[in-house]
Fold this protein.
Amino acid sequence: MIERCESGTIGRIMADNGDLFGGTPVAAPALPPAVPPGARPAAAAAAPTAAAVRQQPAAAAPPRNGTLSEAGYDASAIEVLEGLEPVRRRPGMYIGGTDERALHHLFAEVIDNAMDEAVAGHASFIDVELLEDGSIAVTDNGRGIPVDPHPKFPGKSALEVIMTTLHAGGKFDSKAYETSGGLHGVGVSVVNALSDRLEVEVARGKMLYRQLFSRGLPQGPLETVGAVANRRGTRVRFHPDAQIFGEGAQFVPARLFRMARSKAYLFGGVEIRWRCAPGLLKPEGDVAAEAVFKFPGGLRDYLAREIEGKDLVAEPIFSGKITKEGSHGSLEWAIAWLATGEDGFSSSYCNTIPTPEGGTHESGLRIALLRGLRDHAERIGQSKRMAQVTADDVMATCAAMLSVFIREPEFQGQTKDKLATLEASRIVENAVRDAFDHWLAQAPQQALKLLDWSVDRAEERLRRRLEKEVSRKTATRKLRLPGKLADCSNAGAAGSELFIVEGDSAGGSAKQARNRATQAILPLRGKILNVANATREKLNANQQLADLILALGCGIGSQFREDDLRYEKVIVMTDADVDGAHIASLLVTFFWRQMPRLIEKGHLYLSIPPLYRLRHGGKSADRQRLQGQEARDRALQGSRRDDAGRAQGDHDGSRQADPAQGHGRPRGPRGDLRHGRAADGQQAGSALPLHPGAGRLRRGTDRPVIAAARAKAPRITWALS
């Protein structure tokens, strides 16, 4: 090999072993001299003559033995698979595998051809028969497969070409079929390749023809059986090959029964007759030996059967059907929303072919329902509520069935599990959107129920996302505790208490008076979010609530775990004023909505202030505990009216209340936040337990009733005189 350098003076011959740097330097051929502008080069110098070229002998290619690895890979290693041999070598490429699902796909390929005849208007019935030997026969009264010689293969009939040649069929254009499930001319030939016995009978032109095949190969020429008077169409009977699907592989009658019945729902103009050998049926099964399927109601009847006995969010079923000439653009749908809380389902079809993985037609349906519901919410002034709703929320409990007919659809893969035609999304969205708008406008009460249901699903989705985030955070809560939390030194929850106070100032005072071993302090900044009427986005974005959830460590909602609660008692300790009562109500509302079991299990307490501090002149009774009206009156005796002091509420007397007695018991050291004894036998400061009996909380109210707590919290407004 000669390599020309940019200088044009030195080249190099590459060694035979491919090493660029192993060759010997050679002189590069000289470049032709430059031609001055306007001058014409000499013809003789420009190129050698033809005679000179003929006199040069052709250089023989040097023999190359190659490496050892190259010797094992030559032209003889290249295989060329012909006919149906690729199908038998790689069946998964054509039917998705060799399991039970792939086995039943053979039946789907055959009945789809019969359905194409029915949708085109040439067949009115289809017979499906499961025989005793495990074979299946599918018969239709359509036009019948052509049996005349094929123009491209004069020695073969069109029937033999279709059955033995991949990509041979009449559905590549729209001349024979306006819409069809078959596209690639592969389906029935694949069935032939994977069957150890296959028989085709064609009644056409008042004559009956028959041909037998085995593993893709014809077992004889096309036979003319004889004249028939009252028969037309095609009958295909096949038995799956045990070499492909394994010994003992057999069709499941219940699965075939459902597949045949679903075809009748998809096209109301066809009657499907089912027959099964009695010996193949299970005694306890619900599959009949004989049945006739014809459903003029179409998908509406299909969906009603599937959701029979289940409560619906909105009634009746939202259904519709649009039929267009030539079938292209025709579609049918039936939709209902389940009120039982179970997950919904969607069954979609294109040209009667099931698409279990959905596709563009399902995307169009989702967009139509979401946009229609949003427009309705805007018309009734509730557009803000729909801001957080997505298509997944609308479809969460939706039972939907959709069938669309389009010309030359595009599927992903030969098994056609997913539709990829972009036009299908536009067809479905435009048709369903208009019908959905009318359905919502005709039943405003049902539409409002559906709107509320979708908003609830959106809030539930956001709540679960928040719980997951909290769950991830609590996994490392020792490193992620809120910064303002003054935690206790107690390692376990038993005996530990969390005091929720308002503001850093109250938090500082509480930290000085607390028992560090068992009492933790979490200061809040002002009033927290009112979760009773707040959106899920606001709840997730509220930092104070996030800090509180992290401090407790037990999760919220369905993720609440009492065993993970870091404190035995959670005490709400706010000021004895209107703002304090409001903050306490907001906190209890949050616990009741997000952690109801925290209240039901008796972990939530409400601290009841105040104690009294007496200041008279320059003297202050800071060390004296004055509790109760009588103790206060005795302390005021002998005071002069012109040296008026003022009694002020203080927090430093909150303590445990006896749930059984309804009043407090003195306990704890002097530095304990709950320390103090009432002079008249009653306490002035306490912590009342909040549970459904004591606090009388009512679900669904914006402000939970804390009557028991407020009754023991007198507000001091008097002054010494």
Observations:
- The chain is about 30% helix and 15% strand.
